[in-house]
Amino acid sequence: MDKLNFDENSHSYTLIKDNGEEINLVSVTQLLKKHGLSPDYSNVDSEILRLKAERGKVVHKELEEYINHKQIGFTGEFETFYEQCVCEDILPSKSEFMVWNDEIAGTVDVAGIIKGQTFIGDFKTTSSLHREVVAWQLSLYAYLMNETFDKYICFHFPDDHTCKIVELKPIPREEIERLLDCERNSMLYERKTFEIDTASCEKLITVQSELKALAERKKQLEEQEESLKDFLIEKFEETGLPFIENDYFKITYIAPTTRDSLDQKRLREELPEIAKQFTKTTPVKAQVRIKLKD
Q1: What is the pLDDT of residues 195-215, one digit of tens each?
Q2: pLDDT, tens only, 101-136
Q3: Cβ(196)–Cβ(204) under 8 Å?
């Protein structure tokens, strides 16, 4: 049976075949970096990168020990992950396991069940999250496992008291195979893109510019309205009248009061089971975000 060895110092994978042949495999991390699909940290101070990497190793190891051996950790990242598992009905089943074929290899951070659905996941301790990179990582792992998961998730720890669960859209299988074909043929992978025709561009710019102008005018009018309301409240309280009315409008005075609201954050923290029981999941349709450049 084939065996895979991992050298942590060089972060390299070696596949040992049944016949004793040794094959050096390309890691998923190396593959993405080579083809320009991972962030460039060359401008970041090396000492900062080293400290971040060390912290990331500690957190990864702690989460691995909990998932695989039920050992309770001590870092803030562990505590927030544990709370999320309880609140979101997450059952991680295994962590830090290697996947490979005869070309590439990688190590999956976590896999399991979330709200009754299968998931494959990654842990990130970076301050910002590069969603596309993680989507590629998880999709390549799933490809190597020859499995399809219901959800592809990143557990993002931007600091030691926050765990964000970020669901990602997997990379289509044909794109993964196109990337691997590029690697086999010593070609660089190029992202698919499309051009917007001139007429559509002009229409987008016009619509966005008009919306921006309307938003600014709306803000100005709301500020004027608020000032007028403050003036009216002052007059009502001076006269004690409940309302005034003329041929154009009726204005009613509403006395100050209090309003009760549910502290959802505190509920999730102190009574996670009850919060989970009354949590509703609502589908959100696909959308695009348009931002005009100055």
Answers
A1: 899 999 999 999 999 999 999
A2: 999 999 999 999 999 999 999 999 998 899 999 999
A3: yes
Across the range 34-57, mean pLDDT stands at: 84
Q: Rounded distance, CA 107 to CA 61, Å?
A: 13
Predicted model pTM:
0.73
Instruction: List the domain boundaries for the chain.
Output: 3-184, 199-257
Architecture of domain 3-184: Alpha-Beta Complex (3.90)
